[in-house]
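dumping the sequnces here before i forget
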Amino acid sequence: MALKQVSSNKCFEGFQKVFEHDSAELKCKMKFGIYLPPKAETGKCPVLYWLSGLTCTEQNFITKAAFQQAAAEHGLIVVAPDTSPRGCNIEGEDESWDFGTGAGFYVDATEDPWKTNYRMYSYIKDELPKLINANFPTDPERMSIFGHSMGGHGALILALKNPGKYKSVSAFAPICNPIQCQWGKKALGGYLGPDASKWEAYDATQLVKSYSGTRLDILIDQGKDDQFLSAGQLLPDNFIAACTERKIPVVFRLQQGYDHSYYFIASFINDHIKHHAKYLNA
Amino acid sequence: MRNYETSGQSQHHSTSPPVPEPSDTETEGLIFYHMDLYGSKERFDIFPEEPSGRGDRSLGDTRRESALSSEKVQHPQEVGYDLEKEVAELAKMYGLDEDREKELELLGGHLEKVESRWPPARTEKAGLQGGLSSGGVSDEWNSQAVSEEEEEEEEEEEEAADVFCSTCKIPIRAFDKLFGEHKDHEVAQLPSAVESEKEEIHKNMCKLEEQIAQMENVASHLEEIFITVEENFGRQEQNFEVHYNDAVQVLAQKYEEQLEALGEEKRQKLEALYEQLVSCGKHLDTCKELTDETQELFLENDKAEFMKVKKFLKQEVNLELSTLPDFEERVIDVSEVEQLMNSINAIPAPCAPVINPQAPNAATGTSLRVCWGLFSDDTVECYQLCYQPVSNERHSDGQAAPSPPIIKNKKIQSCENAALVCWESRDINPVDSYTVELSKLTDEENEDIITESIVGIPNCEVLIHLQPTQKYHICVRAQNLGGSSERSEPVLIHTTGTCFYLNEDTAHPLLAILDDGFTISCDELENPECDLPVYDNSFTRCIAILGSLIPFPGKHYWEVEAEEDTEYRIGVAFENTPRHGHLGANNSSWCMRHIITPSRHKYEFLHSGMTPDIRITVPPRRIGILLDYVNCRLSFFNADIAQHLHTFNSHFQHYVHPCFALETPGILRIHTGITTPPWTALP
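..and the predicted 3d for all of it:
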């Protein structure tokens, strides 16, 4: 599990770096961005995992979200992996932007030809943390997760499927109920097969209904002028209704005038970093 | 003379000074003159320019004063000085060199003479021609000689003059204007010219009168200085006398001691010598006896008998002198005298220091901070502090000590770092000030130790700074000339969290406060009778009430408990928030609002009528409110699960108060004195 440094830039007294490694889970070379706060030079830091949305690579978040200052201030290592396996030469992987490359959907595929490489759920859950903990000054007991859009979906399902593993979870405009929306149906159908009951294992709204783990404090920001919100791809109301019923604490903030872009993310990233710092540094 | 008060043994104001130590002559000896002499800057306006800026007045004074004092002390032979010289010296010290000659005349007591020489005091005509420049006195003097010459000239032509040449400042004949040397000059009619000049002269007269008054002032000051200097030198004479007497006394004592020691030595030596003499005599006798015996033996011729006498001389005679005849060398120790002599002139005795008024918080039950200052840069080795307790008993003027005040227990406002305590005086006797005494309560120790006291509080309220997470007993005493009252009933303050009380004056008539003082309820939203009393300060529209929160710029946290179906508004508001409006609808209040819609619980976070769109899945039963002046934020939490709900980021221009409103019948329970939970720190 050798890491190869691709880039390193000093940022707010810490370093924003990109590494490349051979993934056993995905059977391809994978890149991830990692921000090491100044505190990491002297001690162990908690890790906050960021999951990006459709079409993104490890670059989008680290260049556009402007999270580094808050991360430096709160002493958080922030890891931003890629969104899918790359260069696997699977037929049709580059055909559309919402499936295949750049659209791993954070599931473990069970269908051919995807099931060999498209195991993003296990990659994020096991391989990546193991790799990070082995190579950086982390505190393995303290990790949290957040993401945007498809990555918001990923963050929610990872937190809900693994009670206690993550200290906190938050999301920007997450795909809350993929089994009900076009993106979800296409991706889950493609990776998991036509049996819709299997999809529920990767649906945040469904997972909440049966969640009985440790208490989670979920923060969700959603732009009110998000075209995917009005297109019914995100369906936060379903998730909120389920959480309300199950008394899962969520603060859902509908932000007037914001869309689905990284400008929206950058506007509220500090609140999310603080939300995680509250639990990671408690 | 300052009266300081400690709290433990309270004292009343007194005019009697602390008794100085009798040996304190040095400190008293050289007060030069009272500071008041320099107190008023106006008096010195006569001096055209200060050597130092006016703002430095007092500093300059002290320097001069010290310079003066050292100079006087260094030349004690000048005690028999002559007044003029002394005064000149003084003037020099005031930095008046440029005006020295003039001043000397004035200060020498020749005021009349000056007056007679003052140009404007001359005839009007002369003044008209003479010193008309509007400049200072010196200008007029300088021009005096010139004007006299002119005067002579003018007199010849006087009868013919009918106009006034403004350029040459002389009256001329109209003819001259046309043809003479004044051809191009500006002229004026003589009467009007005279008028304007008269005015000018009048102004100068006024100025002069002012200056004369100031001169007189200075003269009287100089008199004062004269007297003070005289007094000071008198004191210094006394001082010298005391010192030299001391020195002479010490010398006399030394002499006595030496003489005594010498006599003792003499006695011892004589005694020793006498003893030796006596023993010598004894030996002599023995020897003589022996000689006689021997001679007898010679005569007897009995050989056997003769041989018996062996012990010819059994005793050796010590012929050494038992003691040295000369007297021991003695060192005469005069160091003490030297010291005494040196102390007389080397360093002048310092001026008396001035004790500062007692500062608030300068005393505890057992200690007192006293501060004082020096006027000059005297060399001071140490200070001697004298004090005496002032009696607690009734003062001689007969005024009775006040009765103890009563602390308004229900109106105490506190937080982790401070408490605002108010009380009422129930006294017909006048109260000058109050003293607050606080004792920090620790688990093991006696509770009655006053750890701090704040004195000289003029009104019935005080903000006390405290340490977090402690318990304090606080009580108040009232004070007047008659002494100090007993302590009030103490109140207990915990600095674990913020405590406020509900301000009943602001309560809407339909809002009731239950007996615990922290539960508010509303039974009905409309009153059929509509004749409920409305106070000036009470909310009229919103069924609301304000709390009274301590005005302290730290963090304040409190919680509100509400039933799930109660609709409410809670938050903070400025004290003057409109009483006829709804909380959160204006820019003077910030609040969280809970309303129940047919589909869900709705939460609004209102300020100026605006709210973000926020959905909360778990309705909070216990809402935590954090007001953080330092970080400019007001945050709301679901206190049961430490969930952050919303934060207003606002730089509060004034102190705010908690506010509570009910929008449906129900109750709100307010919890204060809660330690700020750590999870409120973020976000």
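Strands of chain A lie at 4-11, 14-23, 28-36, 45-51, 77-81, 138-148, 169-172, 218-223, 250-255.
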